[in-house]
Amino acid sequence: MFNLKTMIATAAIAVAAAGNFATPALASQCAKPGMNALANAPMMPRGVTDTVIGSINLAPEIGVDGRQLRTRRLVVQPGGIVPLHSHKDRPALIYTVSGSITEYSSACGAPIQHKAGDISREADGLSHYWVNHGKVPAVLLSSDVFHGM
């Protein structure tokens, strides 16, 4: 799965990257709060590479059976799509490392633009999808509590 050196290196990179930003912007704060039915939302991924870079079984750590804390690296190519999905019972934080990406959220009446240095909070049953309308790949780090054991 992964070894201690990989975990330490990943943590060091995350800390170093975070140190480049005094306070990450909470890009998930919607400028136009409201319900969005997400009609015609894409259901299939396109142009996305999703790599698990680390995970921890939460049962022995904090007694949460069947759950793991995982971190993934997603690279969304120009025109790429992370399809419609829900965060009901699966909270997550998404950090935009580079590029930019647009989020279409069930809790926002307007698209949300995420740029490098932004962090997005995904919880409370939120449903959404992401599209890279830019000309360069968007690189994201996603940490979530996942049903996976």
From TrEMBL:
Assigned keywords, A-Z: Signal
Annotated InterPro entries: Cupin_2, RmlC-like_jellyroll, RmlC_Cupin_sf
Name of this protein: Cupin domain-containing protein
Organism of derivation: Sphingomonas hankyongi
Signal peptide region: 1-27
The keyword Disulfide bond belongs to this UniProt entry's keyword annotation: no
Domain Cupin type-2: 74-142
Signal among keywords: yes
Pfam family, one: Cupin_2
